[in-house]
Task: structure prediction
Amino acid sequence: MLIKFEVNGTPAEVDVEPRLSLADCLRDTLHLTGTHLGCEHGVCGACTVIVNGEAVRSCLMLAVQADGENVVTVEGLSNDEALTPLQAAFRKHHALQCGFCTPGMITTAHALLSEEPNADADRVREVLSGNICRCTGYVPIIEAVLAARTAYGADQ
Result:
């Protein structure tokens, strides 16, 4: 099936099998490998991308469902060589180790802070609870997201 959608601000036209997941389309067809595949059951959150402003598990979404939609991957969160404030906060707070979960954590946190820039620690924990990290212990991740809130317009 021929699908057309916007990915990271760029129009994409792709011929896909109807059963192809959005994650596989992004990684294998469009070569956007920042979207990681972990469990492929929607449990780990590594494949999280933003579709029309909402964080979604791209392993559970078919590529054909993205037809006409706006998709943002971790690569699309920054449009220059510098780190975004959220990425810089992850670095500053040592909120990553192996980095496998990081793209999903960052896209999930970005979607949250875009909607709720004043999210408190409990809300950040709740939203990120669907993203599994086996390295950091989560505390630095929560600290990084909280530190980045001002970049999204949070009250000081």
